[in-house]
Amino acid sequence: MAGDDQARFTQLFDEHRQGVHAFLLARTSDAEVSRDLLQETFLRLWRHIDEVAEMGDGQRRGWIYTVARNLVIDRYRTEASRREAVTRVGNEVARIAGGQVDTVDRMADRDDLEHLEAEIARLPEDQRVVLTMVAVAEMTSQQVGEALDLPPGTVRYKLHQARQRLADSMERR
Questions:
Q1: Cys bridge to 25: 34, 74, 84, 149, which one at CB 3.0-4.6 A?
Q2: Does 166 share its domain with 94?
Q3: CATH number of the domain where residue 98 is located
Q4: Taking the model in full, what pTM does it have?
């Protein structure tokens, strides 16, 4: 049975690989991302090989392209969420820095955003978690404290540390 699955998968991969890759490349305009999504598309095909192999040609093709399309949509949603989170944190850092740091909207180039993302990633885990919960999830210190089993004052202190550390880093840039 496993040999049959492998043969069916290989046949479907050979039939659809180029078309799906072209579709993904057209949607993402990024060769590396399109290869990653191609791999994920066919990984999902492998996981559902019995189900997909029983479909007719048109239905099978539709299934494969629907998976590819949904992966592109998920990628854009994830990217948009990440950008929104960085924007919120960056604007908060600019506010804390009292005008010494540009807001995300006024940052000169992509390098500034990448620097901010890298600095967020360098924060100690406890500060990064609190900052993310407040900036992205828009939770209060009370809500974060309840979720993390911390007093609200400790949450506010960790949040202050994270913001100050990011503001200092952006001022030095």
A1: 34
A2: yes
A3: 1.10.10.10
A4: 0.52
